[in-house]
Amino acid sequence: MKIIEGNSFQDNRGIIRFVNDFDLERIRRMYVIKPELDVIRAWQGHKIESKWFYVLSGSFQIQTVNMLDFNQRRSLTVNSNENKVIQIEPGYYNGFVALNESSELLVFSDQTLENSKDDDFRLTLEDLSW
Questions:
Q1: What are 129's strand-pairing partners?
Q2: Of 94, 84, 88, 63, which is closest to residue 4 (Cα–Cα)?
Q3: Per-residue confidence at 103, pLDDT binned at 50, 70, 90?
């Protein structure tokens, strides 16, 4: 998991949130997830695909686990005020849970949907606990 820091700017016209160091050159698609509160969405992994998460609203706990070594686990709580992009690199399962009712997550991928389907590896919460 890599964190790309952003910032915000506010004046009398409103607020601008940005992550200027997030390079969009590799991005092939994007989508928004608005999960139910406290529902754990885990574990999806990719050996080729990278994903990037940006919290649009609310907050999330995000976890990654190395696909070859379940002892390599990382957990992070991030909210929309932090303006961070979280990169999930290939070789990791990922999962997340919304911590607020209004939480929304913007997801970017460097693979087409067809390529992603061929690179989709999943475990259940029974296989790997949260």
A1: none
A2: 84
A3: very high
* Residue corresponding to tokens 């209004």: 102
pLDDT band at 97 (very low <50, low <70, confident <90, very high): very high
Q: Over range 31-48, report the average pLDDT.
A: 97
CA distance linking residue 111 with residue 42, whole number of Å: 20
Q: What stretches of 1-130 show up as alpha helix (H) in DSSP?
A: 113-118
Six-digit token string for 9: 């700017």
HSE-CB at 89 with a 13 A cutoff on CA atoms is 7
Q: How far apart are CA 128 and CA 87, in angstroms?
A: 21
State the Cα angle at 119 between 116 and 124, rounded to 5°: 105
CB 46 within 8 A of CB 113: no
For CA atoms 15, 38, 60, 87, the dihedral sign is: negative
- In this prediction, residues 78-84 reach a mean pLDDT of 96
Which pair of structure tokens corresponds to residue 125?
């919460």
> Model confidence at 42, in pLDDT bands (50, 70, 90)?
very high
Q: Which domains does the chain have, with CATH numbers?
A: 2-122 (2.60.120.10)
